[in-house]
Design goal:
Length: 88
């Protein structure tokens, strides 16, 4: 599973952001449902978080740190992302 995440997590974040934005555009312009557009900033947040975690797993960042420290940084990024997602 970790190898799959190391390879495709950036793409997963990109696809999530495209999917959420597409749903918002579809509902706004085709279904004529008025939405609060502040929730559509969250795909950028998700994309940024998954890209950063992807780079940490591929050892582009924090190369001198142990796996334990890297895992704590990843948990911190996920926690902040979920918190900001719930606030928006």
């Amino acid at each position: 599973m970790k190898e799959w995440l190391k390879k495709y997590l950036g793409w997963l974040g990109f696809l999530a952001s495209v999917l959420i934005t597409s749903i918002g555009l579809y509902s706004e312009f085709i279904l004529n449902i008025k939405l609060d557009w502040s929730i559509f900033y969250s795909p950028l947040l998700i994309l940024g978080a998954t890209s950063t975690i992807h780079d940490i797993l591929n050892e582009k960042y924090f190369t001198k740190y142990s796996e334990k420290v890297k895992n704590r940084i990843i948990v911190f990024i996920i926690t902040i992302t979920i918190g900001m997602f719930l606030i928006s």
